[in-house]
Amino acid sequence: MVSSGASAGSPVAAFAALADETRWTVLETLAQDDGAAGLTASVLADRLPVTRQAIAKHLAVLETAGLVESRTVGRERRYRALGAELTALGRRLERIGNAWEARLTRIARIAETLT
Amino acid sequence: MVSSGASAGSPVAAFAALADETRWTVLETLAQDDGAAGLTASVLADRLPVTRQAIAKHLAVLETAGLVESRTVGRERRYRALGAELTALGRRLERIGNAWEARLTRIARIAETLT
DNA sequence: CTTCGGTGCAATCCAACGGTTGCACAGAGC
DNA sequence: GCTCTGTGCAACCGTTGGATTGCACCGAAG
After folding, report:
1. A62 exposed, middle or buried (CB, 10 Å; 0-12, 13-18, 19+)?
2. Which of A14, A33, B13, B75 has a CA 20 to 30 Å removed from the CA of B92?
3. Is the pLDDT of residue B57 over 60?
C-alpha cells in the first residue's frame, strides 16, 4: 500500500490536512490520550468545542491524508494518530529543503569561481 | 528573529502556505531557476499559467510564512526560496511524529508489563 | 519629457471549507 | 420488545481563499 499514506505522491494534500488548527487539536488529543485503543468522534467532540459531525469531517480528512487510522470495534469507530506518517512527511520536507540549499551553495561556488 | 520564520510559533500558518499546488510550483520554480539573483513576480507569471497578481499574492503568503525572501533591486522585486526554513519545518514535524510514536511504544510496553 | 515595463491596490467572482442542524440507521443494554 | 447512544448522510450557511480584471503609480530608458 502506497497511495494513501502521507508520504505518497504530492504532499500538498497532507499539508492541507495539517493547515487547520482544529485538526491539529484533534491530532494532538489523539496522540496524547491514545491508550492504543483510540478515541471515538463522540469522545473527541466531548473534549473539543466543536460538534461531533465537525470532528467526524476532520477525522475523514486526516484519514484520507493518512495521518490517522481507524478501526471499528462494536458500533463505534476508534481513531489513532499515526506519528510515523508525520515523521515521514517531515523527513521529506527536510530533503527538499536541503536540495534547495545545496543548489544555492553550488551556484554560489560557481559564481565565486567566475570572480 | 523569531516571529517571522516558518519554524516559529504554531506551524499551522506555514502548512497553510504549503497547502496549495500553485504555491508549490512557485516555490520549486524559485528554487530551480534561482541564480542567487531571484525571480520577479512578472517572470514567474510568464512561466506559470496564472496572472501576475495571483503570483504576487502567493509570494506575499510565502514571505509571511517565511518560506521566501524578497529584495528590491531597482523598480523590481526579486524573490528567493528559503530552503533552510523548509528544512527546519521538516525537522519540527519529524520531532512531533517521533514524540507521538514514542508515547505509543511506551504505552504498549506498560500494557505488556501488565499482562 | 515621454514612454514603457514592473508593482501595488481594490473590487469582484466563484469554489472550497469549517461548522451547524436535522434526520435516519445500527447496535448494545434494560 | 423498547430505549439510548454512537454513526453516518445531507442540506444549509457564513467565511475564507484562489484567481481575475482594471486602474494608478513609479522608475528606468529613449
Report:
1. buried
2. A33
3. yes
